[in-house]
Specification:
The complex is a heterodimer.
Chain A: H1 4-28, H2 38-75
Chain B: H1 5-35, E1 39-42, E2 49-52, H2 56-74, H3 78-99, H4 105-119, E3 133-134, E4 138-139, H5 144-164, H6 171-193, H7 199-203, H8 206-219, H9 228-246, H10 249-255, H11 257-270, E5 284-286, E6 292-294, H12 304-309, H13 316-342
Antiparallel strand pairs in B: 1-2, 3-4, 5-6
Classes of the chains: A mainly alpha, B mainly alpha.
C-alpha cells in the first residue's frame, strides 16, 4: 500500500470539492437579500467575493499542508540515482 | 423508459463508428506522419524512441463521426454544442502542435471553446440547467449568469488539466477512458432516474468512450502514437461539454481529481502558466538503470508524478500503473457520487 498516502490526499481533495461546491451554490451565492442601496450592494458583493476566495484558499492550504507532510516524510529516504 | 430499436442502433453506432474509424484510420495516418517526419522523441526511453505525433486530427474526426450519428439519429443540438466546443479546443491544440503557443496564450484561446459551447444555448435553451445536483442534498438554486461563466471557464481549466496528464505512454488514453466511463455511468443514471431526460445526452458520451478505448490500443506502453496537444485538449474540452450537457458536473469533477491535483501541484510550484518546453528544469529524469527518478533540483515543478516517485524510482510502465490506480479510485468516488445523486 505504498500509494495509500496519495489516496488520502486524493480523498481529501474529493471531500473538499463536494463540501465547497455545496457551500458555494447554496450559501455564498444566494446570500442576501440583494440591497437597493449602492453602498450596501457593493458591500454584499465584496463579502461574497471574500467568502469565495476563502473557499479557494481553504482548498489550497489543506492540499499544500497534506502534500508537504507527505513530501517531508519521503524526502529523508529518497533514493539517489546512479548517474 | 423503454428504448426503441432505432435508439439502440444509434447508441451502438455512436460508440462503434468512432471506435472502428480510429482503429482503421490511425495506422494509415501514423504512416503518413512518419513519412513527413512528424515524429517526437519518447523522452522517457533510453535511448529515446521516435513516435508519430500528433494523432489528434484522427481522434477529432472519429469523435466528430460519433457525434454526427447522435445529432442525425436523435435530432439533438447537444452533440452539435459539444462538437463546437471540441472543435475550438482541437484547433488551438493543433496550432500548438505545429507552431507552439505560449503558456498563457493557450488557456486564453481555450475560453473560446467555452463560448462556442454556451453560444448554442441561444438555439437550444435546454442545453444545460444553470444549477448543480448534489448527492443527497439535491438541486442547488439556479443561477444562470454564474453557472454560464463557470461553464465557459470549465473548458480551459479541464482541457489544460487533461493536457497536463499527457506525459507518459498510455497516461492520457487510460485517464480519458476511465474518466469518460465514469461520466457515462453518471449520465446513464441521470437518464434512468430522471423522467424527460433526453437519450441524446447519454449517446453523446459514447463517442468519447469509443475514441479513448481505440486510442489506448496505440497509446499504451510502449506507445506507437502520441495524441499531441490537439488530442489532449480535444479530450478535455469534450469531457467538459459532455459533463455540462449531461448535468453530471459534480461526478465529473470528482472523476478528474488526479488531473486537478496534478494541475494544482504544477501551477503552484512554477507559479503560473508556463509552457512545458520552457520550464527551467524537469520534474523527473531517467537514471542509468532506465528508471524514472524524482528530480532533486529546487526549481523542479512539483507534479503528481514527482510526488509518486518520492517513494522510490519506477519504470515508466509502473509509474503509469500508479496513475491509473489513482484514476480508478477517482472513478469509484465518481460512481458513488452518481449513485448518491440519482439513485438514493
Amino acid at each position: 500500500m505504498k500509494l495509500a498516502p496519495v489516496f488520502v490526499i486524493e480523498a481529501a481533495a474529493f471531500l473538499l470539492i463536494i463540501a465547497e461546491t455545496y457551500l458555494f451554490f447554496d450559501f455564498v451565492v444566494p446570500l442576501g437579500p440583494i440591497p437597493r442601496n449602492p453602498a450596501e450592494y457593493t458591500g454584499l458583493a465584496l463579502v461574497k467575493l471574500l467568502l469565495i476566495a476563502g473557499l479557494g484558499i481553504l482548498w489550497f492550504v489543506v492540499m499544500i499542508g497534506l502534500t508537504r507532510l507527505y513530501v517531508r516524510s519521503k524526502t529523508r529516504t529518497l533514493p539517489r540515482p546512479s548517474s | 423508459m423503454p428504448l426503441g430499436l432505432a435508439d439502440v442502433g444509434v447508441l451502438l453506432l455512436s460508440f462503434a463508428a468512432p471506435f472502428v474509424l480510429l482503429l482503421l484510420g490511425l495506422p494509415r495516418f501514423l504512416g503518413f506522419l512518419a513519412r513527413v517526419g512528424r515524429v517526437s522523441d519518447d523522452v522517457h526511453k533510453s535511448p529515446p524512441a521516435k513516435v508519430p505525433e500528433p494523432a489528434g486530427p484522427v481522434l477529432f474526426l472519429a469523435a466528430l463521426a460519433g457525434e454526427l450519428v447522435v445529432a442525425v439519429g436523435l435530432h439533438s443540438w447537444v452533440p452539435v454544442a459539444v462538437v463546437l466546443g471540441t472543435s475550438v479546443a482541437f484547433v488551438v491544440g493543433l496550432w500548438d502542435d505545429l507552431y507552439v503557443l505560449g503558456g498563457k496564450t493557450k488557456p486564453l484561446l481555450l475560453v473560446a471553446a467555452g463560448l462556442a459551447f454556451v453560444s448554442l444555448a441561444v438555439i437550444s435553451t435546454d442545453l444545460y440547467r444553470p444549477e448543480l445536483t448534489l448527492p443527497i442534498l439535491g438541486d442547488t438554486s439556479p443561477h444562470f449568469t454564474i453557472y454560464t461563466v463557470l461553464a465557459i471557464a470549465a473548458f480551459p481549466v479541464v482541457a489544460n488539466a487533461f493536457n497536463m496528464m499527457d506525459a507518459f505512454n498510455g497516461e492520457i488514453s487510460w485517464f480519458t477512458l476511465l474518466t469518460s466511463a465514469a461520466l457515462l455511468i453518471g449520465v446513464v443514471l441521470h437518464y434512468v432516474f430522471t423522467p424527460g431526460f433526453a437519450l441524446a445526452r447519454v449517446a453523446s458520451v459514447l463517442p468519447l468512450v469509443g475514441v479513448a478505448a481505440a486510442f489506448l490500443v496505440f497509446n499504451r506502453y510502449p506507445s506507437r502514437a502520441f495524441d499531441g496537444d490537439s488530442g489532449s485538449l480535444m479530450f478535455g474540452a469534450m469531457f467538459a461539454g459532455l459533463a455540462i450537457a449531461g448535468g453530471v458536473e459534480v461526478a465529473a469533477m470528482i472523476a478528474i481529481v488526479p488531473a486537478i491535483l496534478n494541475s494544482f501541484y504544477t501551477l503552484s510550484s512554477v507559479r503560473g502558466f508556463v509552457e512545458r518546453r520552457k520550464m527551467a528544469s524537469r520534474p523527473t529524469y531517467i537514471g542509468k538503470d532506465g528508471l524514472l527518478y524524482a528530480s532533486y533540483e529546487a526549481g523542479a515543478p512539483s507534479t503528481l508524478v514527482r510526488l509518486l516517485l518520492l517513494d522510490g524510482p519506477l519504470s515508466e510502465r509502473d509509474l503509469v500503473k500508479n496513475i491509473v490506480y489513482l484514476t480508478v479510485v477517482a472513478f469509484v468516488f465518481s460512481v458513488a457520487i452518481s449513485v448518491l445523486t440519482w439513485v438514493v
